[in-house]
Specification:
By secondary structure, the protein is mostly helical. It is 80% helix and 0% strand. It contains twelve helices and no strands. Helix 4 runs antiparallel to helix 12. The mean pLDDT is 87.
Amino acid sequence: MDSILVLTILIVIGSLAFDFINGFHDTANAIATAVSTKALKPRRAIILAASMNFLGAMLFTGVAKTITKDIVDPFTLENGSVVILAALIAAILWNLITWYFGIPSSSSHAIIGSIAGAAIASSGIAAIKWSGFGKIIQALIFSPIIAFTLGFIIYSIFKVIFKNNNLAKTNKKFRHFQIVTAAIQSFTHGTNDAQKTMGIITMALIANGYVESSDIQLWVQASCALAMGLGTSIGGWKIIKTVGGNIMKIRPVNGVAADLTGATIIFGATTIGMPVSTTHVISSAILGVGSAHRLKGVKWDTAQRMLVTWVITLPISAMLAAITYFILKLFF
């Protein structure tokens, strides 16, 4: 069998594996607050998240096109197939490591850093399209800051509106509404995260001469959406525990504020075709809500550990990808 075809098949398999892992790695982001407040039982929460992730992934492609063409040029990328395969392997490794330790790291940082690291290992620093790459990095950096701020504002508004209401009754009403916000957040997760692997597969198809444009093939979209949905159905209990309980004690009113914040930021990024980290956005939204609720109630040691992981993910994944590229070059 032709080596290019073999590499393309391996990339498709690797991409779907990454999407599957991303599904159970990031499931917690969308449903952690709903599970921790008992608005949804874990099994129902995961079924809801899987369904809405699949639907979101099937309806949008803008982020996929950004990944395909704005980090590196797939039409001129040297050893493109090996670069992409190395990036996938590195991102999967980092996702599994952070999942094992229950750390809500960013799959987005991992795959974007891995693509950059493998491309630099292949063709040097000139391989990166700095204008597009810079915009992606800006989106990854500023989205958590905006999420923290918006979460703080939304919960502050809730406090003013419901200050004279009975707390128990208010939380009971919000617990029902939280089912809706969890569904919305799962949908927005699918509109952004699943598209990253659609872009990677399309990049490989272009680099290997199978397609001539960055338009996303229907089979690519459907397979990535399905892989994300299946991965979501597995769940990510370690990360659910961190996001849903180890940042702050979440009540339904807190959960709704955080869910609305996360969904707004993620879907806003999707509409302009920018990949963001759902992990960063949702965790930052919870931190913003917690700060508005009671500053001392936030477990800042957990937040600090998450921040360290966020900072190191991109350079470590880039380094892992570069090493993986040189290893793969021995075989291809």
